[in-house]
Amino acid sequence: MMRVVGTDALNEDSVARYLCSQAKAIEARTNFCPSCATRLKPWEPMIFKDGMEVGRQWTEHRWCPGCHNVVFNMLIAYMNVPDRFRA
Question: What pLDDT is attached to residue 64?
Answer without folding.
Answer: 92
